[in-house]
Design brief:
Blueprint: H1 10-24, H2 34-44, H3 52-65, E1 68-70, E2 78-80, H4 82-86, H5 93-102
Antiparallel strand pairs: 1-2
Helix pairs in contact: 1-3, 2-3
């Protein structure tokens, strides 16, 4: 079982895990928009039960926390950061603390 960082909830973790799964297929970053994340996690997979604006809000939270980055400054497309790739099991105690502070 994965250890979550305090401040992260089920929606946050489902989003990060979704991005991690996409990247693990070929190791390359995969950019996703909030609409595509919603479509996959809510409509297709049924992993989450929430509104599309909830997904957008959580993507922004993960971006501010440093787990995701925008591919362009004005873009709503996100990719995992190195921290996001290593979340939650491969983070040092210091990184966990810093992440908690940003959440």
């Amino acid at each position: 079982m994965r250890r979550w960082v305090p401040g992260m909830d089920e929606t946050d973790n489902a989003i990060v895990e979704f991005y991690q799964e996409l990247e693990s297929a070929d190791g390359e970053p995969v950019a996703q928009s909030p609409a595509l994340v919603y479509r996959n996690l809510v409509e297709i997979r049924g992993v989450l039960d929430c509104a599309s604006n909830t997904i957008s809000r959580h993507l922004k939270k993960l971006w501010h926390a440093g787990l995701l980055e925008r591919i362009e400054e004005d873009s709503a497309h996100y990719v995992l950061t190195d921290l996001g790739r290593r979340y939650p099991n491969d983070l040092s105690s210091e990184e966990r603390g810093e992440l908690e502070d940003r959440l």
